[in-house]
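Let's inspect a concrete specimen:
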Amino acid sequence: MNATIINIGDELLIGQVTNTNASVISRMLTSKGFDVKETFTIGDNAEEIRFYLAHCIQRSDIVIITGGLGPTKDDITKKTLCEFFGSELYENETALNNIKVIFEKRGYELTPINRQQSWIPRCCTLLNNLLGTAPGMWFEKDGKVVISLPGVPFEMSYLMEAEVLPRLQEHFNTGYIINKNIIVQGIGESFLSDRIESWELALPKSIRLAYLPQAGMVKLRLTARGADHNRLEQEIAEAVDKLYPIAGEYIVGEDAEALPEIVAQTMTKAGKTLSCAESCTGGSIASKLTQLAGASEYFMGSVTAYSNDVKESILGVSKQTLATYGAVSEETVREMVSGVRERLATDYAVATTGIAGPGGGTTQKPVGTIWIGIASDRQVITKLLHFGDRRAQNIERTCNAVFSELIKLVRAENADSFQRQ
């Protein structure tokens, strides 16, 4: 089934607000086997809404609209949809009660303009928005489905998960869809493609492969679709089994969206603790890990040692090491990672030091020169990385390299705790 997304809002067109809704909806639809055909971003203009809606209904089975459902005069989506479908607005009791509950919790008075948000076209099905005052709406016309959702990202995501996706799967009887993620690190996308070409060409017709490159890593997503759930699971498992002999040395995990998830799974399963000392990454490693619920089970703390004084006084890096080899050196990162592991009393530790850029490089140590360290009670591993001059990308790639090396070390030293992930 094909889907089209229309994101409405003048603030999106002028760049005042980043349009994250398009990518989130696309990802959610794709995960359930719906093919996103087009995405449009338009302003708060009734004529534009009607034009693009008519165009999209002709080309797609599903049209999802976001934005323009607020209580102010520039929010015209609901009225325009009502006219488009030849219907009339009425006060929906369920929507009104939801608004009353929200206003009571917040201690607000329900004004006439806010009460109007409970008015929806008679021809639609209400998608009750428990997180906000703008309800979602489900329309059907000539076998096509049009869905209108609030533009507030967390409200939109809630309605997609709770209401839209289950209804779409039931309405279109999509069958079974199984997704499998394989996280690959240490090899570029083109080299990986060449390496696994014969494997890819031999995949069953029921399985689609997508390459999803990220900074310093590639996510392979296998999507199997069909009527027999057990057969799909078996085909996915057999395909993954055949991949490991070809590219297993680069595979760092499965069934995760990104490396921090795999770090969390690995550390928790091994029953080990972690600390980190960051210079060039400036706390990004700690931030990525602690964004995930349950990080406190294994992550003990972090030191952002940006200056040499902090490296010396907090982490115990010797003045002589810094004077002789410099802050960006194997010797320094070795002392940083050992120091933070000892001081925070953790099983494992990671550390970074380097020149993230865009300035600060020298002939001997150009921008993009990064040292990382991973330590356990058995050994200290260091690695020199060479990246470009883009600061944000350098930090992201460094974080991913650290996560990958940490995962490999923990699994190697705790092999009895792990089967193939």
